[in-house]
Amino acid sequence: MSENSLPSSVRGRPDFNGKGSRFSKPLFFILLVAGLAFAGLNLVSDVEETNMPVTSLLPFFLLGLALLIALGFEFVNGFHDTANAVATVIYTHSLTPGAAVVWSGFCNFMGVLLSSGVVAFGIISLLPVELILQASSGNGFAMVYALLFSAIIWNLGTWYFGLPSSSSHTLIGSIIGVGVANAMLHGRNGLSGVDWDQALKVCYALLLSPVVGFVCAGLLLWVMKRFIRNHQLYRAPQSDQPPPVWIRGLLILTCTGVSFAHGSNDGQKGMGLIMLILVGTMPIAYALNRSLPADQIPRVAALTEVTAHQLRQLQPAAAHPPAARDVLTGFVGSNRMNSEVLPALAMTLNEVGDEIRRYGSMDNIPAQAVTNTRNQMYLASESIKHLQTAKVTLPQETERNLKAVKSELDSATRFIPMWVKVVVAIALGLGTMVGWRRIVVTVGERIGKTHLSYAQGASAELVAMATIGAADGFGLPVSTTHVLSSGVAGTMAANRSGLQLATLRNLAVAWVLTLPVSVLLSALLYWLFTRF
């Protein structure tokens, strides 16, 4: 990494050596212990509610280990990515470094708590469907550990060198690596192990986000110069004094928005992986949403029965049909429609309807049937989604019923307990308060050749806040790192301040290498873990 940063003696450079509050470390450890205790108490409570006899401590050990690693991923994500959100308020002296990271950590916390969960399950849908259906198997655990370890290793490596690379890119690459390795280990073409339609959709969003950040932040700065004639806005800070109140308020507002949006978007990735871990280790407690009202069950059963009947009329089953699960698993994995898909989906919906009608509520489904029921629901929902993306022509009434069935099935299988949101929020928030300085210095000093002005900081943050917020609404994972650091570069280019080419080269190399390295690393780790 280039060392062309502002000397500590330069006027306007933030003071990173100031003493923090004496309460910071005790508060950090109190929150850390409280978060772990909160997770443990909720786990015990959820398991006790199922009346499941404890015959072995091994599942609890595996669960605890996997949860710690998943929360570690979110912790690293906090100080790796969120440093981008605080760089502008720190370098414009809108907030002191200590106040900025604490405030950003709180906003990340709130963003996670109020997130929708759409991104979480969008990430999960990228994984090989057969591994999702076998989440409790050895291969399922190998998948989760390979994903988390490869993402953590690359994120820590780029953080060490002060390179603001993308945690989202890293996680997507890790998922692709696991999919490719799983397919090759089963004697299939490696490319068949990935849902490429969904993967390309995500990759397009990730690749487009830095372009949006660079162009839009530069344009916004140009527009501000044309219409806002306050010269102070376009000057770099001349001392360590905070800017005028209205400028300071704008910068803090944008930092708040980016931090909240980061928590809402990035926090969901960890939540999705944690739910996969919970389903794999404690299916009786977490495979199905046991809070669904009992009066919803008859409606769901009737809807699945009607929809299955409509599908059978469209495509009658063969005399000796293949196993429905094999047909739908192949369809979801390849996205190739054939004459067996609709009969297989009809059969699966019938079985789901019969199962939930027999027991009357999710709570009453016995432990030995829970995993199979969830897998059937998940597979049916994914098959309906792929029918929609494949643009299969169906009667309007059948399409409406399929959409309604998918919504009901998702409410039973795609849920996130509040305690999971809370512990992920704590991990991400605490991570924000640790190790942020390396990335902050890169964004604040080493991208452009001049000190960041108030207008440049506001432009980059406004664009990042809007882009990440929009992506969260559409359920797309984007990179806070790429959007904001590209936005800073865009404002430097628009201002003709000059760019530090050595830093940009290092950033470009890190960004280009992130996907292939994470693919290779996760594939190797998955292969290694499946040997045990």
Give an overview in words.
The model has no long low-confidence stretch (mean pLDDT 84). Helix content is 72%, strand content 0%. Helix 1 packs antiparallel against helix 17, helix 3 packs antiparallel against helix 4 and helix 10 packs across helix 17. The protein contains 21 helices and no strands. The longest helix has 37 residues. It is mainly alpha-helical and 532 residues long.
Which key terms come to mind for this protein?
21 helices; 2 domains; 532 residues; mainly alpha
Layout of secondary structure:
Elements: H1 24-49, H2 58-81, H3 83-91, H4 97-113, H5 118-124, H6 129-133, H7 138-160, H8 167-185, H9 196-227, H10 245-281, H11 283-286, H12 296-314, H13 324-334, H14 341-359, H15 367-389, H16 396-413, H17 418-432, H18 437-445, H19 454-473, H20 480-494, H21 501-529
Helix pairs in contact: 1-17, 2-7, 2-10, 2-17, 3-4, 3-10, 3-18, 3-19, 4-10, 4-17, 5-10, 7-8, 7-21, 8-9, 8-21, 9-19, 9-20, 10-17, 10-19, 12-14, 12-16, 13-14, 13-15, 14-15, 15-16, 19-20
